[in-house]
Write a structure and sequence with these properties.
Layout (H helix, E strand, L loop, with lengths): L5 H36 L7 H24 L8
Length: 80
């Protein structure tokens, strides 16, 4: 498959950065809920699957932001 044209790469990169940013916002909202649960139930609220899912959200958003930024940068358009 041939490489994407520069304009298409920028659009794909911008959409990937947007998806990563949205996952980062979801992570912070989830951390707010986890903090509220911690205040209500104590340390037992932290050791559950929801906290693990929050960490996976953080990892996924970081990877999407990194890939999107790398694809979006104009320096990648130069072939050389």
């Amino acid at each position: 498959m041939p490489p994407l044209p520069p304009v298409t790469r920028r659009i794909v990169g911008m959409m990937t950065v947007l998806a990563g940013f949205m996952l980062l916002v979801a992570f912070f909202l989830r951390m707010g809920l986890t903090y509220y649960a911690y205040k209500q139930a104590g340390p037992a609220a932290i050791y559950n699957r929801e906290f693990l899912m929050s960490l996976l959200l953080l990892l996924g958003s970081g990877l999407l932001l990194r890939y999107g930024w790398h694809t979006w940068r104009p320096e990648n358009d130069r072939q050389g």
